[in-house]
Design goal:
Blueprint (H helix, E strand, L loop, with lengths): L2 E3 L2 H9 L6 E3 L17 E3 L7 H13 L5 E3 L1 H7 L3 E4 L10 H9 L6 E4 L5 H14 L3 H22 L6 E8 L2 E3 L1 E2 L1 H7 L3 E2 L3 E2 L4 E2 L2 H7 L3 E4 L6 H11 L3 H5 L1 H4 L3 E3 L2 H5 L6 H16 L1
Helix pairs in contact: 5-6, 6-13
Length: 289
């Protein structure tokens, strides 16, 4: 089987279940595991990565309002790769190349591939997607073993976290404007022993007002902007320090703000979401100590 993954999370999953050798093409964002790096890159981004969080948000909103895609897909390269299976998504046009573009390109391919869209809204959905990819690629056993190992790690954290008080945790998936965590992230906070606030379990991330954040005044703030590595996340925290509302928050005053690599962990719905639970639990355990 010749597989093209247009999702970093799917790329990680395919390698984790033993199907990595069947991958023939990936996205420009597929940076894990290292074995994915030499593979042909089928997408590119128009996002201005060097800009501030506010400038990137404005660029995204203008593009979506105009009906423009934030990503391009190399249709000629896709044709040359002759895939049997293309893994993509419809969940978010900001996070990856849109399903509409992928579907249009796939219809023109001589290889007549199967196009599968993954739409997880929770960690359980992620586990289901792992098994789906295992079934599609004839790596059912690898998928079952991976899910079992991830469930065991998750249960270990939950068992420990259940013995401590649950701090109120705000996870920011964007910093300017501030946006609360959606989809699977509130569940990860709960698994780690926290109580998510201003979150949207199972739904899209939503813009927050500073009045709402001030009224909640969370015990802990985790900053994990979508698509940002840890260096850019520290920059985003630096931008937040320019706002008086931010500096007035108790978590900020008392040093309970934690930058986390959102691109690698929080916003990528693959096997490493269990790493995220462990990271969150480490943060909350430190607070409880």
């Amino acid at each position: 089987m010749r597989i093209v993954s247009l999702l970093p999370s799917a790329t990680e999953t395919l390698f984790a279940i033993g199907a990595g050798a069947d991958l023939v093409g990936v996205t420009h964002e597929c940076d894990y595991p290292s074995e994915a790096l030499p593979l042909p890159r089928l997408t590119a981004s128009s996002l201005p990565s060097a800009d501030s969080s506010a400038a990137i948000d404005r660029h995204v909103r203008r593009a979506l309002h105009a009906g423009s895609s934030l990503y391009t897909l190399d249709a000629d390269l896709l044709e040359s790769l002759q895939p049997d299976l293309i893994v993509t998504q419809e969940l978010c046009e900001v996070c990856a190349v849109s399903y509409r573009i992928v579907d249009r390109a796939a219809r023109r391919l001589s290889s007549d591939p199967r196009v599968v869209s993954l739409e997880p809204s929770s960690l359980e959905d992620v586990f289901a997607n792992i098994q789906t990819l295992g079934n599609l690629t004839h790596h059912e056993t690898g998928a079952r073993e991976l899910i079992a190992a991830l469930r065991k790690r998750r249960a270990a954290v939950r068992g420990h976290a259940g013995t401590a008080a649950a701090p109120r945790v705000l996870v920011l998936e964007w910093s300017d404007p501030p946006m609360g965590a959606g989809h699977w992230t509130p569940g990860l906070v709960e698994d780690a022993g926290g109580t998510p606030v201003l979150s949207m379990p199972g739904g899209n991330s939503q813009r927050l007002s500073w009045d709402d954040i001030t009224a909640v005044d969370p015990d802990v703030i985790i900053v994990a902007p979508c698509g940002y590595g840890i260096a850019k996340t520290h920059e985003a925290v630096g931008e937040l320090r320019a706002r008086p509302e931010w500096n007035a928050l108790r978590a900020v005053r008392e040093g309970r703000v934690y930058p986390v690599d959102g691109n690698a962990y929080v916003n990528r719905p693959g096997p490493r979401l269990v790493d995220t639970i462990e990271i969150f639990a480490s943060i909350l355990g430190q607070e409880a100590a």
